[in-house]
Amino acid sequence: MEFTLDAVHTMISPNPSAVQVPQHTNNCPPASRIFQGREKILTKMQDYFAQDMGKQHIYVLHGLGGAGKTQVALKFIQESSHFTNVFLVDASTVETIDTGFKNIAKLQHAGDSSEDAVKWLIGKHGSWLVFFDNADDPKLDLYKFLPPCNHGNIIITSRNPELRVYGSHSSVSGMEEEDAIALLLKSGAVEQITSSDKKTAAHIVKVLWHLPLAIVQAGAFIAKYGALNRYLDLYAKNHKKLLRERPSQSHSDYEWTVYTTWQMSFDQLSPAAAMLLQLCSFLYREGISEDIFSQAAVYDFLSIDPSKEELQQPLEFLSQFQGPDGEWDPLAFLELTTEIMSFSLATFAPEQRAFSIHPLVHQWSRDILADPELSYCIAYSIIGIPSVEFQKHTHSWQV
């Protein structure tokens, strides 16, 4: 399904036989009953959608999987009364978007095709809202599916920060501490909360870096076992299991855990991007500089010991960032880091030419290594040897 202006123009015509349609439609579920915080983002969204009613409004919520983007959107929709019709569209794939638009057409008795839905949206000058949820695939060109008109409202949730180009936007990341504590205690069904409980909860949400999905998972575990005071000790020894295990009782229909939602993103990375992310798990998570890899690429590995077979993989990895003359190719490196960032698995600081990885993602990327010892050897070959010489002059790398 692709919406072109020519196709749309041929679709717009009166339909006198259309049956009467409902005046208000909202097929979105409510936000979670334990939703907490996000006032700054919600206020920004309210201000944005209230201004300049003579144009189409598009708002993008982007961020790491598990940050709560969908819940923020649902909370905003739930608290907004000026939208006449609200439609939820699963934007995971072209096929789910097509299904979503067909459902819009059927709900409004406007037909049964995607094109019928677009025709209805273009002709309906009321304050409708289409919520494109989970538009995470960086290969999917969402622009093709935005109704081409100067009215209406659109909310998009995505792990891909590139979608910011469509309109106003907010990055959804860790929660404010007080909100995170409240979320943990609510999801953990902690009653008669004491100051000691709040202090313990503060330590737990800090370890979880205030990430909503991780907090809700922790809360479900605490509710099941009554283990608020034991959680930190259990997490220290079993964090992989606790972040991977889906609770049997949940406060939402979100079917993924912290680790499985990131695994879905990881599985879509190219082999080179996946290797780069995992190699970075052996570095300090912040300020990972392009210079680390560019220096390694031109380093004379063969002068160390040409007989070492383990150098073969790092040399092959680095060769993709070198041009025909052996010079460092910054564009090739930028393309690979951008691929990782398209799933919000890393953030980039262009002025420093460096990127950073969320602490829990950093931990997870090492947890899923198939062969940690081999990966460490590769990382050390790429990073460790040249950095020893580089540190003599800059003292700027942390390995």
From TrEMBL:
The DUF7779 domain, residue ranges: 264-370
UniProt xrefs under InterPro entries: DUF7779 (IPR056681), P-loop_NTPase (IPR027417)
Keywords in alphabetical order: Hydrolase
A GO MF label: ADP binding
Signal sequence annotation: none
The UniProt record lists the keyword GTP-binding: no
Name by which UniProt lists this protein: P-loop containing nucleoside triphosphate hydrolase protein
Organism: Mycena metata
Lineage of the species this protein comes from: Eukaryota, Fungi, Dikarya, Basidiomycota, Agaricomycotina
